Amino acid sequence: xxxxxxxxxxxxxxxxxxxxxxxxxxxxxxxxxxxxxxxxxxxxxxxxxxxxxxxxxxxxxxxxxxxxxxxxxxxxxxxxxxxxxxxxxxxxxxxxxxxxxxxxxxxxxxxxxxxxxxxxxxxxxxxxxxxxxxxxxxxxxxxxxxxxxxxxxxxxxxxxxxxxxxxxxxxxxxxxxxxxxxxxxxxxxxxxxxxxxxxxxxxxxxxxxxxxxxxxxxxxxxxxxxxxxxxxxxxxxxxxxxxxxxxxxxxxxxxxxxxxxxx
Length: 263
Description:
Elements: E1 4-9, E2 12-17, H1 28-39, E3 48-53, E4 58-60, H2 65-68, H3 73-91, E5 97-101, E6 104-106, H4 108-114, E7 118-122, E8 126-128, H5 142-150, H6 152-161, E9 165-166, H7 167-172, E10 178-180, H8 185-197, H9 201-214, H10 219-232, H11 237-256
């Protein structure tokens, strides 16, 4: 893969969009590489993914305007579908995905970060959906995910005005979970990912599916989704070990309690 690198540290996989000379802008080749990289993740050994961008200036500066500028209507729709297919694969990937956003996350960069489960960013991060300034709409899910994350009113304001926001405002409106100094960002992402990886993998994956699938339906149907995924965790080694360890620790704790005796 020319534009996406993948490395594994323990039980954490790190995907890096590696096109720094173009500020990691997304073109068809990058999307193809990202699609292939996701297919190559061993979900039996890796328990959490981190997605980031190469260099200090940009996470992903957007889709490649040079490639888009000459597209026909049909070609533009196909390009939008390509991006949406890859981002949807990321969003529904069985493992949790943390976006470590360093620098610019504009257009497609903001959109791909929103396809991840958790977003943390550096102090120099900048988010935005500038598409209307280019005479187009967001094409990789921006009109849909942004409204779901920060509410329709704030999403419409960001999209209609094409105004970028800095890290502190992204935190205030709930677009990101936390902000770190740039030099601490990846360590913070790895620490969070390692913490997730320590938990029972089946349970974590089922939690992701329950949340994602539940958001798409009404509450009555959503709790049925949860019930089934809750039940699916039982009779697994994770459930037996987790509950067994808890009961054993609880038993040991009770044995250590010395009854108070009046003298």
